[in-house]
Design goal:
alpha+beta, 6-stranded mixed beta sheet, 11 helices
C-alpha cells in the first residue's frame, strides 16, 4: 500500500510529484531543507540511523528504552517486533516531539510482529509493505522514500514454527531482495535494515558449531545473505569491523546476555554507491530494554 505525504494531495498527484521531484533532486533537496533548518546539519553532514528489535514497543517503553532512543536524536529510528497498532499507543509514541511516526502492524494477529519508523524529516512517500496480502498480513515492512535514498525497515520471519513457516521465510527473503534491487535498478540509493533473523558467518554467533542445524544459521539462510552481498549491498558493521565479535540478540530464557552468548542477527545494509559515505557503524551492547540491542549507522554527505 502506498501512502503519500503531501497534505491532502491525491495519491495520483503525489506519485506524479514524486516523479518530478526525483528528476530534480537537487532543487527539491535545496527547497525542502531551506524550510527545515533544524535538521539541516544532520541530513547534510552526518545522518544517523538507529535500528532495534524492541520485542514489544509497549514493554520497551515501560523500561524507558524508547525514550532513550528518542534522546539519541538519531535522524531515523527503526523499530521491529512492535507488537502493537498505533491506536494502542500513547501520544508520546504516536506523535513524539521532533519526529514523524509511521507504523505497520499485523492484520491477522494482535500483539505480533509489526514495525515502526520515526524520522526527523518527513519522507516524500511511504510504502506499507509490498502491496500484496500474502506478504503484508503480518506487518513486517515499511519503506520511506527520501530525496537522496530509500530506507527499508523490515522484521523478517523467524521461520521456526513449522516447515511451512520456514519456506515462507525463504520466499520472503527473495521477495524483499527483489524489491530492494528494484529500487537500485531505478537509480536509487538504498539503506535497509532490521532484524534479519539470520547470522551470516561463524563470527556472528557465539556457538556456531552447536548451531549448524539451527534455524537462523542454516546454510540456505546464510546463502541468501551471500546473494545480498553479491548483489552489491554492504553489511555496514562488518565492512568496518571484519574481525570484531559483537552480538545483537541473546536468549532471555537462558540468561545468555549475562554470559554474552549471543547472535548478530540485526543489520544495516547500504547499496554499493553509499559505501563511501559510511562514517560509523556500531552495535550498542550496553543498551537494555529488549532481548536485542540497537545497531547504528552514520552516513556522511549523502
Amino acid at each position: 500500500m502506498l501512502k503519500a505525504h503531501y497534505g491532502e494531495v491525491p495519491l495520483f498527484r503525489s506519485l506524479f510529484l514524486l516523479q518530478v521531484l526525483e528528476t530534480l533532486p537537487d532543487l527539491y533537496f535545496f527547497t525542502y531543507f531551506s524550510y527545515n533548518t533544524d535538521i539541516t546539519n544532520s541530513f547534510l553532514q552526518t545522518m544517523q540511523i538507529v535500528s532495534m528489535n524492541v520485542n514489544g514497543i509497549r514493554a520497551a517503553d515501560k523500561k524507558g528504552a524508547v525514550q532513550k532512543l528518542f534522546d539519541t536524536q538519531a535522524d531515523i529510528i527503526a523499530l521491529q517486533e512492535t507488537k502493537a497498532t498505533a491506536d494502542q499507543l500513547g501520544e508520546h509514541l504516536v506523535r513524539p516531539e521532533g519526529y514523524h511516526a509511521y507504523y505497520e502492524s499485523s492484520r491477522v494477529r494482535k500483539g505480533y510482529s509489526g514495525v515502526a519508523v520515526y524520522s526527523r524529516v518527513e519522507p516524500l512517500l511511504v510504502e506499507y509493505g509490498f502491496g500484496e496480502e500474502k506478504w503484508d498480513d503480518e506487518g513486517r515492512l515499511l519503506v520511506l522514500h527520501f530525496p537522496r535514498f530509500v530506507f527499508m525497515n523490515c522484521y523478517f520471519p523467524n521461520g521456526g514454527k513449522s516447515e511451512e513457516h520456514f519456506e515462507f521465510k525463504l520466499a520472503y527473503y527473495d521477495k524483499f531482495l527483489a524489491k530492494a534491487l528494484g529500487y537500485v535498478k531505478e537509480g536509487k540509493s538504498v539503506v535497509f535494515g532490521g532484524d534479519l533473523n539470520v547470522a551470516h558467518h561463524p563470527i556472528d554467533l557465539a556457538r556456531p558449531k552447536e548451531n549448524e542445524k539451527s534455524i537462523g544459521f542454516l546454510p540456505v539462510e546464510r546463502a541468501w545473505l551471500d546473494r545480498v552481498e553479491a548483489a552489491g549491498f554492504i553489511d555496514t558493521y562488518r565492512s568496518l569491523y571484519p574481525d570484531t565479535v559483537k552480538y545483537s540478540w541473546w536468549d532471555m530464557k537462558t540468561r545468555s546476555r549475562e554470559r554474552n552468548v549471543g547472535w548478530r542477527i540485526d543489520y544495516l545494509f547500504v547499496s554499493k554507491d553509499l559505501q563511501k559515505h559510511i562514517a560509523k557503524a556500531e552495535i550498542w551492547n550496553e543498551f537494555e530494554g529488549s532481548d536485542h540491542c540497537p545497531v547504528v549507522l552514520d552516513l556522511t554527505k549523502i
